[in-house]
Write a structure and sequence with these properties.
Layout: H1 2-17, H2 33-47, E1 52-59, E2 67-73, E3 76-85, H3 100-127, E4 132-135, E5 142-145, H4 153-171, H5 176-179, E6 182-188, H6 190-194, H7 205-208, H8 212-219, E7 223-231, E8 234-235, E9 240-244, H9 247-265, E10 273-274, E11 282-283, E12 291-298, E13 312-318, E14 329-332
Parallel strand pairs: 5-6
Antiparallel strand pairs: 1-2, 2-3, 4-5, 6-7, 7-8, 7-9, 10-12, 11-12, 12-13, 13-14
Amino acid sequence: MAGSRRRQWRTVMTGVLAGSLVVLMGACGVVGTKDDRRAAEDLAEKHFPGQLKAIGARTLFPGTGGSEVMFAVSGDRDAVVRLRIDTDENERGSCDGKDCVGALTEAVERARQQAEDFRTLESAFDACGYEVVALGPTGTPPYVVAELTNATVTRVLSEIGQCVQRWVTASGPDSTVAKGQGTYVNVVSPAVAEHRNRGKDSWPTLMRLTRSDLLASLTEYTHFSASYEIEAGRVDTTGSAREVRPFRERQKFGETVQSAVKEQLRTTYPRVAVSEYQWIWRLEPGRVDRQTGYVLFCPEPDPRGRCVDSDDAALVTTDEKGVPVGKIRLVHDVRDASGILRLPPY
């Protein structure tokens, strides 16, 4: 069977020499990543001789067929080229739904641009003392390391905001980040960063910093997301932050605050029902042990005892466990005429 596959790929690569890559499926089903990688290497050597080195391949998920082959770029320590090879029955002979030569050319250009964008970002954060230890799958947001406490949160958010301003300025007025209305930076504690899954130093930077296992090793613990508004290229460096909890902790927090709010509302609405939906909770300025957010509620439950499409909300400040502190403020008519939720900022 394996020999049959190899013969099929030799036939395929004859087509590559004519200008396109054809990915075949043998009688046994989807071609494995080993054959995909070999075909991609031949394609790269044909059209980018001596410039690309295959460093890995993975089966695409979910199981629609195909592989992603990754290349390092000669002379660029940061860039990683990702070529998606289709083996789905309806897309044979293509790469990410396109002609493979064109797809590889685009992938190389994209990898070089992403590497350049990363260097701009990294330089901006390094200049103000914050190392970028990870990136989101698309190259943003950056993850940096800092200990946020009541004593440090205001200073750290401001310093990171200044990093963001450097990044926006260095990226230029036509960049995606400069044109945006805002961006955010994830902040992990030194203890979590110290034990992160670092990967191999030999991997291209953008392969190493965007890996799912690296991100999982950082986000399996509570961390913070710092948000910054941008207007005409100017960043509000004050920023705001929210706590990002692992799933089980987030559920426990939500249950605690929803139960407490429901109990308080019963004095006014004896049959009150509280929505299970969790709104965004933001840290109170200068505090990491106080956060404020909305709990949606219905004065009367629906026939199934639920709160659906609520038009009422309670603005609540809680401690770290979700126990309300201070008074709850009620907000009514929180949906517009089309039913879209329009909660006032806080």
